[in-house]
Structures are given as structure tokens and as C-alpha cells.
Amino acid sequence: MFADYAKITIRSGKGGDGCVSFRRELYVPAGGPDGGDGGKGGDVICVVSDGLNTLNDYKHRRKFQAGNGIQGSGRRCHGADGDDCILKVPNGTVIREADSGKIIADMSHDNRKVTLLRGGRGGKGNQHYATPTMQAPKYAQPGQPAREMDIILELKIIADVGLIGFPNVGKSTFLSSVTNARPKIANYHFTTLNPNLGVVDIPESDGFVIADIPGLIEGASDGIGLGHEFLKHIERTRLLVHFVDAASTEGRDPVNDIKIINKELSDYNPILAEKPQIIAANKTDAMSAEDE
Question: DSSP string covering 56-95, please?
Fold first, then answer.
């Protein structure tokens, strides 16, 4: 299952409380305060994992919490820090505040690690509060509280080339021909329901990545036919290859198809309409001599 959206709750760790303790040893009747500091609460950290390409890990688990700091103890012993909570996400994940929609981080390119919530600071033990006039303080500082926030993870695929066009115009067939990707191919609409990625290998080069974007339809920019879910994956491509059914096998005018899809791109995000675009006239083998 391909998951490119998830809403989760994250919570940092609470800081450990400082300790109230006094040194008590034989022949040391008034050793003074020796309460240790509490440990720091764990942070919530997001990192990019190159081995991931979906947000499936966040579909069935919705709450992620870092460890709490441990309370300090006597003999000036510092409490242990809480464990950090590491969220692994694919390259291209955008993190937003659920309430405001504000972007917290865009985990793409060189931005591979970000701290979303910091854990609470540990409280100071009573040893820090001894003064000449208060030599036996019976209080310590509590640890700072944890912080909690609802966030949205949204994956936008990063690819060099994006294949766009109406359903059933041959995008998946092309992807399977030029890369090692094996998308589902069949002669019906919306055979492809999720973006597929393939790598084109070029001798003496790193090659490039192609993304097969599921078929767009008129009204996609308004969300019709899962339009928003498909269009967002085009935003980070460098070049668009626009496939059209040149033979009009389904009765549509290929020139009009081009205008419709380009209008949907422009309505969704004007920047998409400005991307370099190659028109690929497909299914020419099914054209009549007159149409050619």
C-alpha cells in the first residue's frame, strides 16, 4: 500500500525532577545537601531514510513519544536523560502543524535531520540552593513539562521527470520500457492508482528518476478524481513528459487533451504550467492513414 499522507501526535519527554537529599555518613552529622539533577527529556527528531519511499509506518500508529528524564538522586547523582524519538521519513516529506497548516520542515535535498520538539530540561537538585543562610534547603526544582503537537506528514515525490496525461494513454507502458519498474498495465482507466518510480540507467552517468503520475482528468485541480493527491507529486519534477492519445482511440481530441491538462496544472499551481514540457504522441500505430 502506498501512503503519502499521515496525521500523527508527537510528544517530547518530560524533564526529570531534581532530588532533595542530604549527605548522611558516620562522623559526618551535617554533610549538607547532595541532591542530584534530573535528566533531560528526550527530543522528537525527524530524519530522512533513503530506504523508505512511503509513509506506511505512520498509517496504523498515530502517537509517538520520547522518553522522560529520570529523577536525580542522592550523592549528587544525575538522572539519566530520556531516549529521543526518531521519526524516519522518505526524502521529499513535508511536515506541517496540523492546527495552523504552517510548514515546520521540508525534508528534501540537503535537509535530512530536524528536531521537531525538544524535551524538557531536568530540574536542579537541592545542592544548588544551599546558601550561607539556608544551608539545608528542603526543595528542588521540578523538571520542565513535556510538549505535545499534532503534525501532518505529506510526501511529495522527488523525480527528475514526471509523466502526465489522461488515464490510459500509455504512461505506465513507457515507464516499464525505459526503466526496471514494473507498474500494473491494463487497458482500462486508472490502472495506476499510486505514483510509480523508475530509474533510467545511462552509461557513465548517475541516470535519472522518472515518476509515473496517475492519470489526470478535467477538474483535477478541484480535487476531482483524487486530483490533489496526484498533482502534488508533480511539484518537484524538473521536466514533464505529456502523453496524449494521438489515435483518439477513446474519441477525445488529443490537442484538446493537452489544453485541458495544462489548464489543470495552471489552476492547481501556476508554477507547474511553467515547467519544461515535452509532448509525447502515443498510440500512433493505431492511427489511420488519413489521421497520420
Answer: GGGTS--EEEPPPPPPPBTTTBPPPPPPPEEEEE-TTEEE
C-alpha 240/C-alpha 254 separation (Å) is: 17
Cell of 207: 541516470
pTM check: above 0.85: no
Q: For 103-132, write each residue's pLDDT tens digit.
A: 999 998 889 999 999 999 999 999 999 988
What pLDDT, on a 0 to 100 scale, did the predictor assign at position 220? 62
Grid cell 489543470 in the structure block, residue: 264
Give dist(CA 285, CA 252) in Å, integer: 17
105-114, Cβ contacts within 8 angstroms, sequence gap of 24 or more: 105/46, 107/46, 107/48, 108/156, 108/158, 108/236, 111/48, 112/47, 112/48, 113/45, 113/46, 113/47, 113/48, 114/45, 114/46
- For residue 95, what are the β-bridge partners? 105, 153
Question: What burial class does residue 95 get, using C-beta atoms within 10 Å of its C-beta: 0-12 exposed, 13-18 middle, 19+ buried?
Answer: buried
183-216 pLDDT tens trace: 555 444 455 556 777 888 888 777 788 888 876 7
- Is residue 191 exposed (0-12), middle (13-18) or buried (19+ Cβ within 10 Å)? middle
